[in-house]
Amino acid sequence: MARYVALLRGINVGGNKKVPMARLRQLLEGLGYTDVATLLQSGNAVFTSKKKAPAQLARQIEAAITEEFGFQVSVLVRTRDELAAAIQANPLPGAEEAPSRFLVTFLSDVPDPKRLEKIDPAAYLPDEFRVVGREIYARFPNGIGESKLAIVLTGTRLGVTPTARNWATVTKLLELADR
């Protein structure tokens, strides 16, 4: 049995797509997952499953959410080891010093390099980002709230489904997966 992390995109934001975490835990348990735990109200869940394909798990959770709540939510699933590798692969220093100003954007797939080339990093300074596989690491020295780069990286411009978490949440998810 393996540990997984489910990242729900765009729930409980501005009163839209409300998914109470207690109901999400029940939904995941109803799918046969065990050791289910959630973190915060932004759609982070950790669970154990016999199934091995994260993409299959994501589709199953998406379908269950649509049936249970009546709206669609994109779900990205990473194994515990993929999450640990994403943390280890961080190419930008300083995440630990300012975790609320550092985002990891998890992507449904590796983005098309041609789409990435259309983003001029110099246009967003002092914000910076690096892409490593299916994750984008970004540092926002002046905060995320007013950043134009944050909007670009978490939107659909790259042709893949993104969902972002700050560094503190990412590291807490790994801790939760390791319990």
Automatic annotation (TrEMBL):
List the InterPro entries hit by this protein, alphabetically: DUF1697
Transmembrane parts of this sequence: none
Could you tell me which PANTHER family the record lists for this protein? BLL4334 PROTEIN (PTHR36439), DUF1697 DOMAIN-CONTAINING PROTEIN (PTHR36439:SF1)
Task: Name the species this protein comes from.
Answer: Hyalangium rubrum
Q: Which domain of life is it from?
A: Bacteria
The protein, known as: DUF1697 domain-containing protein
Show which residues constitute the signal peptide: none
**Xref: Pfam families:** DUF1697
